[in-house]
Design goal:
The chain has 372 residues and is of the alpha+beta class. The protein is 40% helix and 16% strand. The relative contact order is 0.13.
């Protein structure tokens, strides 16, 4: 493609789907899949498992659970300050590059410390967490015994921003549950943070997984600001395009950019999937109307369905002793053929999430969009 070529939403959509392993499932170890997409959001247990199921061929949830137990994958706050499931290697490399994001968080919360220096809080918190993993409520309570003049919740949150903390299992294990107890990544992995990385590497990882993209897209993905200078330093190594509004798009020269008419199968995405949250301009995957329809209290993002590569529905499932039910709520009218394709993929998802439930007790319902 020549410099300055205009890429429309479908071209950007197919590029995104190809890089996010959503045009066809691939055979790849789970840890490699996580590194390929630069981690998957993991506020809840299920999303990274469903995210890998929809991307990888023959993915077994026991594989990811085993990686977490063996400390090859960790759950840690990274991009946008949200919990991600990432490889241990990526966690050690990415967390220092994202520290300015967490420094902003510390500055905002520090006003509730009653004059206690954040550095002292971080030092005390490290000692407590490396002695015994704690929830933030437990950590805040113990720190509050030392500094009763400070807000206990703020003490815990300062530690969250100042230190690289991982959630330890059983939190995040498939089919199990546990409190969000934390320790430092250094104690958990027995290795120091890798502070040799550069922001250029972060941008190149982003473009490989989500490009072509603007500077503001990259900033939306990671939560950092001031990346324009970094992108400019990279410009000689990148290909440049424009979107339909004239904004500059940057990309890796050899990254996949499939034909806009490349078929895209139905894909069920988990809640908070990064495909929906990693660009300022999300027209490559959803309309503004549908973006607004996803808003929920407390920034909860439901499971979603891509049809022809674009957001078409939300989904939720309920599994109990009586059976398993998956309900799809369409965001736009679906043809009979499209509804059948969505239902078929939904049945595949239910077979995977509820293998112990008899097929006769699994139900998939595709509902029409709500009346205007």
């Amino acid at each position: 493609m020549s410099v300055g070529e205009v890429l429309g939403p479908r071209a950007l959509n197919r590029a995104l789907l190809a890089r996010q392993l959503l045009l066809e499932r691939v055979s790849m170890p789970a840890v490699d899949g996580l590194e390929h997409v630069v981690g998957l959001q993991a506020q809840a247990t299920g999303p990274p498992y469903v995210g890998l199921w929809t991307r990888l061929a023959k993915f077994d949830p026991a594989e990811l659970a085993d990686l977490i137990v063996k400390r090859r994958v960790v759950r840690i706050a990274l991009q946008r300050g949200t919990i991600h499931a990432v490889s241990a290697r990526d966690a050690l490399t990415l967390r220092p590059l994202l520290q300015p994001l967490f420094d902003r968080w510390v500055r905002q919360v520090a006003v509730r410390l009653g004059g206690v220096p954040p550095e002292a809080v971080a030092e005390a918190a490290r000692g407590l967490l490396e002695d015994e993993p704690l929830t933030f409520a437990q950590l805040g309570g113990r720190l509050g015994q030392r500094w009763p003049e400070a807000d206990a919740a703020a003490l815990g949150q300062v530690a969250r921003g100042a230190l690289a903390l991982v959630q330890i299992p059983p939190r995040g294990l498939w089919g199990r549950s546990g409190p969000a107890a934390h320790t430092t990544i250094e104690a958990w992995l027995g290795a120091p943070l890798d502070r040799t990385g550069e922001l250029e590497q972060l941008i190149l990882r982003y473009l490989a997984a989500f490009g072509p993209a603007t500077v503001r897209d990259a900033q939306t993905w990671c939560g950092l600001t001031g990346l324009g200078e970094v992108m400019e330093r990279l410009r000689p190594r990148l290909s440049a395009f424009r979107d339909e509004t004239g904004r500059d798009l940057f990309d890796l020269p050899d990254a996949p950019r499939p034909d806009p008419d490349t078929p895209a199968p139905v894909r069920f995405l988990p809640g908070w999937d990064n495909v929906l949250r990693s660009h300022e301009d999300r027209s490559r995957v959803m309309s503004d109307e549908h973006r607004a329809a996803l808003r929920r209290p407390n920034d909860v993002v439901p499971g979603t369905v891509l049809l022809d590569g674009f957001l078409a529905a939300t989904w939720e499932q309920e599994i109990n002793r009586a059976g398993a039910t998956l309900t799809v709520e369409s965001l736009r009218p679906l043809s009979g053929r499209d509804a059948s394709a969505v239902a078929a993929e939904g049945r595949r998802l239910l077979r995977w999430t509820a293998p112990h439930v008899a097929s006769s007790a699994r139900t998939v319902t595709v509902k029409p969009p709500p009346a205007p």
